[in-house]
Design a protein that fits this description.
68% of the residues lie in helices and 4% in strands. With 256 residues, it is mainly α.
Length: 256
């Protein structure tokens, strides 16, 4: 890891997971805009040093941004009113309190979600499974099962496409889009359950989970890049909490 660039790919996937979790835990205990803005600003500065292409990062984070906007809009319109009332219609009440809470929620959603996107842009599921089992000492049966399921997620889109082609070929997908979607979703669920059962049988036949101790093809280790990444997570979390407390905006889980 050079002084001018933070290469998150050199860090263990478990360290990336713990770093994102550390920032999320630090931000979840308060609902204020200061801590969220502080954390988000520091995260953007860290992103600039990682060398991750901005266009790719923006594309992957767009669903999070859209979700944050709609979440903030909901709180803006239906949040608990306090202070000056700016607009009111039926159940919709826009006040100073709802505006502040909407801004805080928007910043907090971004500050919690964006580190996960930044840290897991190029993570290898197999390396993550190795780290979970060797570093965190999680049960091998759980880790390998989760890895197998994660690997099969990518097949769902392919199965959905093929199911659509098959149903159109049989003439059962010409009418009723909602009914077609429900029937196709049920067929995909049945197909996924059958595939999972076959995979479990195959894994059991090969001895997965039969012994408490297993050998691993690749060793999962932690080192200086992991310590640096965790230190960055601690700094971001501590700075967000410190600035919020110093400015008097710290609001412990919406206590005020």
């Amino acid at each position: 890891m050079s002084a001018a660039r933070l290469d998150v790919n050199r860090a263990n996937p478990v360290t990336r997971l713990l770093t994102a979790l550390l920032i999320a835990v630090a931000l979840v205990f308060s609902v204020d805009w200061v801590s969220g803005l502080t954390a988000l600003t520091l995260e953007v500065l860290v992103l600039a040093t990682t060398g991750i292409p901005f266009r790719r990062f923006l594309k992957r984070s767009m669903p999070i941004v859209i979700a944050a906007v709609f979440t903030a809009l909901t709180i803006l319109l239906y949040g608990a009113p306090s202070g000056r009332i700016h607009a009111e219609f039926l159940l919709v009440v826009v006040s100073d309190g709802s505006i502040e809470l909407a801004i805080a929620t928007f910043l907090r959603v971004l500050a919690i979600a964006l580190p996960s996107i930044m840290l897991f842009t190029d993570v290898d599921p197999t390396e993550l499974a190795d780290g979970l089992s060797q570093v965190l000492r999680l049960p091998a049966r759980f880790v390998l099962g989760a890895l197998a399921g994660f690997r099969l997620i990518g097949l769902l889109h392919q199965d959905w496409t093929y199911l659509g082609y098959a149903r159109r070929a049989r003439g059962v997908a010409d009418h009723g889009r909602l009914r077609r979607w429900a029937g196709q979703a049920f067929a995909l669920l049945v197909f996924a359950v059958r595939r999972g059962a076959k995979l479990a049988t195959a894994m059991e036949a090969r001895g997965f989970g039969a012994h408490p101790v297993r050998t691993w093809a690749r060793e999962s280790t932690v080192g200086a890049p992991d310590a640096a990444l965790l230190a960055i997570g601690v700094i971001i979390s501590a700075a967000a909490i410190t600035v919020a407390v110093a400015t008097g905006s710290w609001n412990f889980i919406g206590a005020r």
